[in-house]
Structure formats: C-alpha cells, structure tokens
Amino acid sequence: MKRIYADLHLCPNLNDSKHVSQIISKASKLGYRLIAITFPSNLIEEEIWRLRNISKEAKIDLASRVDLKPKTPEELIYDLRKLRRRFEIIAVVCESKNVARQAAKDRRVDLLNFPSLDFRRRFFDRAEAELASNGLASFEIDMKPLLTLEGPARVRLLSNLRRETAIAKEFHVPIVISSGVSDEMLLRKPKELTALASLFDLDETSAIEAVSKNPLAIVKRNREKLSSRFVAPGIRIIRRGKDC
Amino acid sequence: MRTVRRRYLALEIDSDEMVDSREFMDAVWSAVSKLYGEYGASEAGLTLIDYDMEKRFAVIRTAHTAVEIVRTALASITKIENMPVAIHILTVSGTIRSLYKKMAK
Predict the structure, then answer these.
(1) Do B84 and A185 touch (CB under 8 A)?
(2) Fewer Cβ atoms within 10 Å of its own Cβ: the N or the C terminal residue of chain B?
(3) How far apart are CA A206 and CA A165, in angstroms?
(4) Looking at the predicted structure, is the pLDDT value of residue A244 above 70?
C-alpha cells in the first residue's frame, strides 16, 4: 500500500489567496496528501471551507490548525476550552516551562512546539516527555530553522534536537516532522525531510513515521472526535431514528 | 580490485532564475562540506554527469554509500548565488541507462 505523507505546519499568508493556492499545489506536487494550515483563532468557518475546496482541486486533504501561544497555564486552559471544537489540530508553542508542562498533560493538545531560536526556552526534557507520554501530545519538529539557520546557531539547534528526539523515543512520545514554512521554496519532499532528520540521529523508520503515520493518526483521531457521531473513544452513533 | 559502486541521481532545480552548472556544483559541494566536513565530501565522490539549464535538470553521480549524505545536503540547499533555490531528487538509479529509463516512465 502506498504511504500517505502529511505536513501539519504550513503558514502561508492567508490574505494572499494566490500564495495560498500556490503553496497548496506545491505541497501536492511534492507528494503530500494531507496538509494543515495555521489559521488565526478568530477565523470564520467559510474561509476554511474555501481553502478546503482549493485543496480538493489540488487532490490534497486540508486540516485546520491553530497555534496557541499562551503566557500562563490558565490562559492555555481557557484557549483550549474555547477553540478545541473549532480546529482539527491544536499546537501549543511553549514559551514558558509552566505552559509546557500544562500542555504536555492536557489531552486536548495535539502538538508541542518549542521556539527554535531561543535555546533556553526549549523545555522538552525528561519530565516534559513523561507527562506527554501519559497524554496525547506529540513532539513537533519544524524543519524551517534547519534550512534557514547557518553556522553555530544550526549546530546548537541540531545538538538540542538530537537530545530531544532521544528523550521522545525513550518515553515513546510520537514525533511529528513538519516544514513550518511560509515560503514555497522552503518546502521539501517527505523523503528529503526524513533525510534531514538524519542530521539529529533520528533513524529512518522513525523519521518516516514522523511524516506519515504520526501526523495522520492525530488528524484521524480528532476528526473522529469532532464528528457529530462521536460519543466517547470507541463509541459512536451508527444510526439515529425511532427504530433504534 | 573491487570496483566502487555508484549511484546516479536525477535532480530538479526549482528556481525562478537560471543557474549555471558551475554555480550548481559549487552549491552542492558547499552543502556537503558544511554538513559533513571535507572528509564526508571526499567520500561522496560527486561528479556532474548531465546538466540542462533551460529544463532545470541535472544528473549527478555519487558513491552508493554516500546517497543519504548527498540527499540530506541537497535538501539543505536554499540559495545559489543569493537566488532562492530548492533541489529535489526525482529518481536514483545504479546506471545512467536505467536512470533515463525511469525518467521516461
């Protein structure tokens, strides 16, 4: 069976519809069958449907994603309560340790993202991984900084990623590799992303899972939960009516 | 003496501007050296086999043990002479003939 590849982090300029179409068709051309675009939290539903239609034409599935950047755990909980049922993917950019810990243990969070450029604020340590392993959150790695950084900054990023992926593997936290790009020239084929993952010692099997199985599992799980037929994990409405 | 096994890589150069073959190979060598050092670059044994500037197509040869190194280095190239560029591998093959056969399919 042919493997399906996904990129859960595309950030096109949503005000420029031509740019959005270009990035969607480019992703399709590079071999992705599922992408997620980051939307602002106040976006109207029609805009998502409009982009879904564009994606359909490009033969690619589109998932809606929101990136939360809360300053406190309370703010995170508030945002999750407000937005969980509106978006298929919720990523939390962890800018403080308290937020990172809350995000890791909250089962409504799908992706844990850490600022790439500020190395003191990468809080994915063993405690964080242990919390995430009991929850549903995956550890997201954006490849954009690996492509754009140079010299000592890239060396330090690789060193951090090597340590963090080793911790994620030890605690069985799923890893998701995304591009995180807003420019289509920085998009790479799934196989190229897995090759880049070898720079931080992620083995080939795990890297392939990080661009296919793991992101697909997140979208499948959330679509099931957001469906009107969903009752509880493993329980869904098959038929409604008087004869049931 | 054992012969060195080689791999041929067909590449697509995704850029709005024209890139000449020398600039292209300089960028590939530079990317391999940056990521794997001079020792890694020497093991890759990179050679340009075919280059079509108009079609933005290239074929390079490398040692079969260095395919992953080259794949990673090619993926890391974002600019050639300050022009935004992406290099994508179209196919990999053991002989030039089978490479072009695969490309024709």
Answers:
(1) yes
(2) N
(3) 10
(4) no
Contact between chains at B72 and A186 (C-beta distance less than 8 A): no
Q: Which residues of B touch A148 (CB under 8 A)?
A: 78
Residues in A closer than 8 angstroms to B74, CB to CB, are 192
B78 touching A (Cβ < 8 Å): yes
Q: Write out the two tokens for A160.
A: 């951090």
Give the model confidence (pLDDT) of A152-180 as tens digits. Answer: 999 999 999 999 999 999 999 999 999 99
Determine the pLDDT at residue A2: 84
Handedness of CA B29, B34, B35, B41 (dihedral sign): positive
Q: Which residues of B touch A185 (CB under 8 A)?
A: 14-15, 78, 84-86
Q: What pLDDT was estimated at residue B104?
A: 86
Task: Nearest chain A residue to B36 by CA: give it.
Answer: A199
Q: How far is CA A7 from CA A129, A188, A193, B1, B24, in A?
A: 22, 10, 10, 46, 28
How far apart (Å, rounded) are the C-alpha atoms in residues A206 and A24?
26
Model-level pTM?
A: 0.91
Going by pLDDT thresholds of 50, 70 and 90, the confidence category of residue B2 is low
Asked if the Cβ–Cβ distance from B86 to A148 is below 8 Å, we say no
**Residues of the domain holding B83:** 6-104
| CATH assignment of A5-225, among 3.40.630.10, 3.55.50.30, 3.40.47.10, 3.20.20.140 | 3.20.20.140
Distance from CA of A62 to the nearest CA of B (A): 23
Contact B31, B73 (CB under 8 A): yes
Residue A129 pLDDT > 70, yes or no? yes
Specify the CATH number for the domain of residue B89: 3.30.70.3250
CA distance linking residue A101 with residue A81, whole number of Å: 17
CA distance A200 to A183: 24
